[in-house]
C-alpha cells in the first residue's frame, strides 16, 4: 500500500498515510478515518527462524492483546479484527518511537526504570514481551508497548538477558536506522542475538538497581 490509498473496511474507508514498519508478523500502516489516526496491521506470511507462533499470527495477536489488557499494560486499544482478510486496526499512539530516542542519545533514566518495572510485572506472571525498541513509543514521558506480541517467560529472551542491550546501543541504533542493517545491533542476525560485550557493566548496574526478579 502507498500514500493516499484507500483501505476498505465494512464500516468505511481508511486513508493510508505512510508505512510505519515491518515486524515479525505483519506490516503496519498509519491511516486516517474520520480525521482520527489509526494503525492498520496486515499480517504477512514471512517466517522467522528464531520464532514460532502458537496459532495464526492474527489470532496470537488478539489473544495476547486480551492478556496484556487484563494486566493493565499500556498498549494501543484494539478496535477491529478481520480474520478473513488477515488484518487488525488499533489506536495510533502519538509520541516518539524508542529506537529513535536511543539513536539520538536522548533516552531518559526514567524510561529505563519504567521498562524494568514493566518487565518485573510481566515476569511475576511468567510472561515475556518483545523488548526490541521499535515496539515502544514514549508519549508525554509515558512508556507504551505498541506491539501485542506476548510469550511464555523464557530467560533467554527476557529484558535482562536480551532486550536491554538494544536500549543501550546508541551508536548501533543510529547506524541501524540509517542503513536498516542489523549488523550494527546484532552479534548474530539469524538468531536475533544483540551485541552485548560493550554494555555488560552498564547492564549489570541497571539490573542491580531496577530488577526485582534477577538471580543471575
Q: What is the β-strand count?
A: 13
Strand content: 25-35%
Rg of Cα set = 17 Å
Uncertain regions spanning at least 5 consecutive residues: none
Mass-distribution shape: globular
H and E order: EEEEHEEEHHEEEEHHEEH
How would you characterize this protein structure?
31% of the residues are buried. The chain has 6 helices and 13 strands. It has 216 residues and is of the alpha+beta class. The chain has helices at residues 57-70, 98-103, 109-124, 159-167, 170-179, 200-210, and strands at residues 6-9, 12-22, 26-33, 36-43, 78-82, 87-91, 96-97, 127-129, 136-139, 142-145, 150-152, 186-188, 193-194. It has 2 domains: 9-91, Phosphorylase Kinase, domain 1, CATH 3.30.200.20; 96-210. A 6-stranded antiparallel beta sheet has the order 1-2-3-4-6-5, with helices on one face.
Amino acid at each position: 500500500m502507498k500514500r493516499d490509498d484507500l483501505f476498505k473496511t465494512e464500516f468505511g474507508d481508511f486513508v493510508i498515510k505512510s508505512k510505519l514498519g515491518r515486524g515479525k508478523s505483519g506490516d503496519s500502516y498509519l491511516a486516517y478515518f474520520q480525521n482520527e489516526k489509526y494503525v492498520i496491521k496486515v499480517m504477512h506470511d514471512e517466517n522467522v527462524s528464531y520464532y514460532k507462533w502458537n496459532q495464526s499470527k492474527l489470532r496470537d495477536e488478539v489473544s495476547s492483546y486480551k492478556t496484556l489488557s487484563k494486566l493493565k499494560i499500556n498498549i494501543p486499544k484494539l478496535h477491529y479484527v478481520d480474520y478473513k482478510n488477515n488484518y487488525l486496526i488499533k489506536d495510533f499512539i502519538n509520541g516518539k518511537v524508542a529506537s529513535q530516542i536511543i539513536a539520538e542519545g536522548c533516552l531518559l533514566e526514567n524510561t529505563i526504570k519504567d521498562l524494568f518495572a514493566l518487565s518485573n510485572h510481566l515476569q511475576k506472571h511468567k510472561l515475556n514481551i518483545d523488548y526490541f525498541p521499535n515496539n515502544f513509543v514514549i508519549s508525554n514521558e509515558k512508556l507504551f508497548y505498541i506491539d501485542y506480541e506476548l510469550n511464555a517467560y523464557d530467560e533467554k529472551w527476557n529484558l535482562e538477558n536480551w532486550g536491554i542491550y538494544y536500549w543501550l546501543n546508541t551508536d548501533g541504533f543510529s547506524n541501524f536506522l540509517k542503513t536498516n542493517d542489523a549488523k550494527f545491533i546484532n552479534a548474530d542476525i539469524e538468531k536475533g542475538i544483540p551485541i552485548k560485550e560493550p554494555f555488560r557493566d552498564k547492564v549489570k548496574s541497571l539490573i542491580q538497581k531496577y530488577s526485582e526478579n534477577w538471580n543471575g
